[in-house]
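Weekly modeling sync, notes
Attendees: S.R. (lead), two postdocs, one rotation student

Agenda item 3: backlog of single-chain predictions. S.R. asked that every request posted to the team notebook include the full sequence so nobody has to chase files. The rotation student volunteered to paste the first one in as an example of the format we agreed on. Action items at the bottom.

Example entry:
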Amino acid sequence: MVSDTEHVITVVVPVYQGERHLPGLLADIEKYTRTTTSPAGRNLRVGEVVLVHDCGPDGSAGVMRELARTYPFVRAIWLSRNFGQHAATLAGMACSSGDWIATLDEDGQHDPAFLGAMLDQAMSAGSALIYAAPTNAAPHSAFRNVASWTAKRLVSALAGDVNASVFHSYRLVLGEVGRSVAAYAGAGVYLDVALGWVAGPPVTAPVELRAEGERQSGYSTRTLASHFWRMVLTGGTRALRLVSALGVAFALLGGLVAVGLVVARITGDAVPAGWTSLIVVTLLCTGAVLFSLGVIAEYLGVSVNMAMGKPPYLIVGDPARGPLGRDDDG
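Predicted structure, as returned to the notebook:
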C-alpha cells in the first residue's frame, strides 16, 4: 500500500527568453499546486515555482513580475548578469524548499503532467535523481539531435563513471541533494555531472515532449560546442589521459617511421628526399603538442577560476527596485 505522505515539489525554471511562453507554462503548473495523485497512488503537490531571470534580451523580467503578483506560489529570482542555463538552475535549486526539485525549460516542452510518473519511478527505484526519457524526438533539427546524441556518448566515454546518455534538462532530484550541489558547485560546472558525483546512478522515466512553439533556440553552434566542452572538463580527468595516450601514439608512429627508413636503406630501396615528409611530420607533431597543451590549459583554467573564488552565479534584488532594493529615490 502506498503511503499517504504528500510529496512537495519545487519547480525551478531558468528564464532567458520566456516572455511568450511563461504564462502558458505557469497556467499548466497551477493545476498541480493542489494535491494530486500519481499513477501509482502517491500524493504530490507543487509547493512553489522558482523563476530565475538569467538576464535575457526580451521582456521576461516584466512577465515574471506579473506572474509573481498573479500566483502566490511563484517566486522570482534575479541574477546579476547572464550566467547560463546551468548556473541559473543551480541558483533556483539553492532557493528551493521542496522535498523534490523539478527542473523545467521555459519554452513549454516539458509537460508537468509527467511529474507524478517521475516521482513514482524515483520511489520505486530508490533513486535521488530521475531524468526524463523522451518517447518522441526533441523538437530540434535532425543535425542538433544527432550532435547531442554523439556528444553525450563521447562525454560518457571520457568521464568514465558518468552516464551522460541519460542527461536531460527535465529532471527530478531529491531536494536535499539539489540544494547541496548548488552550495558546493564551482564556476563552470556542468550541472548533471555535479549531480552524478553525489546522487548515485540516475534512473529515467518515459515522457512525451511538447512542441517548443515559436521560440527559437538560444543555443548557437558555438554555444553548444562550449556546452559540450564544459561537460568534458567537469566530467573527470580522462581527457588528460587521452593527452598522454596521444603522446604515446605519436612516439610509436615516429618509431615505426624510423624503422621503416632503416629497413629501406638496408634493402637498398630509395628513401624519398626533400622537405615534404619532414614538414608533414613536423606539422602533425606540433599539432599534437599544441592540442595537448590546450587541454591541460583548459583544466588549469577551471582550477584557477575555482581557486580565485569565481562564483557560478550571483543572486541580487529585483533590478526594477533600484540598487538598494527599494522603489524610493531618497
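Discussion: group reviewed the output briefly. Residues 215-219 have pLDDT under 50 and may be disordered.
Action items: rotation student to repeat for the remaining queue; S.R. to check formatting next week.
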